[in-house]
């Protein structure tokens, strides 16, 4: 495991399900430097977290990563997938006078 100053990483693995939780404890002083330094430190932390061992076929995701991946896909492909009920509601509202 990579050691990051002022950061403690610990995992709790549940033996029956082999599911894990990651708990991050930050020293508040991590957030005091400049925005550039903070960004570099966050990148270091994310790299350390993503470097942790995982179950086969699994990956480590950080908050916002899934939604960002979907956003990039929607921009690239030029459309957004909606549930049929939401599409029908939007069509209905669009056809009503303002």
Helix content: 40-55%
Our measurement of the CA-to-CA distance between the termini, rounded to an integer number of angstroms, reads 59 Å
Low-confidence blocks of residues? 6-15
Tally of separate domains: 1
> How is the main sheet built?
2 strands, antiparallel
**How would you sum up the global shape?**
elongated
N-to-C SSE string, H for helix and E for strand: EEHHH
Structural class: alpha+beta
Quick one: how many beta strands? 2
Radius of gyration using CA atoms only? 20 Å
Number of H/I helices: 3
Strand-residue proportion: 15-25%
* pLDDT averaged over residues: 78
What is the subunit organization of this protein? single chain
Q: What is shown here, in short?
A:
It contains three helices and two strands, in the order ββααα. By secondary structure, it is of the alpha+beta class.
Please supply descriptive tags for the structure shown above.
98 residues, alpha+beta, two-stranded antiparallel sheet
Describe the structure.
This protein is α+β, with helices and mostly antiparallel strands. The protein has one domain (7-95). Helix content is 42%, strand content 16%. The chain contains three helices and two strands. The protein has helices spanning 35-50, 65-77, 84-95, and strands spanning 7-14, 19-26. A two-stranded antiparallel ribbon has the order 1-2. The longest helix has 16 residues, at 35-50. The chain is elongated. The N and C termini lie far apart (59 Å). The model is unreliable at 6-15 (pLDDT under 50).
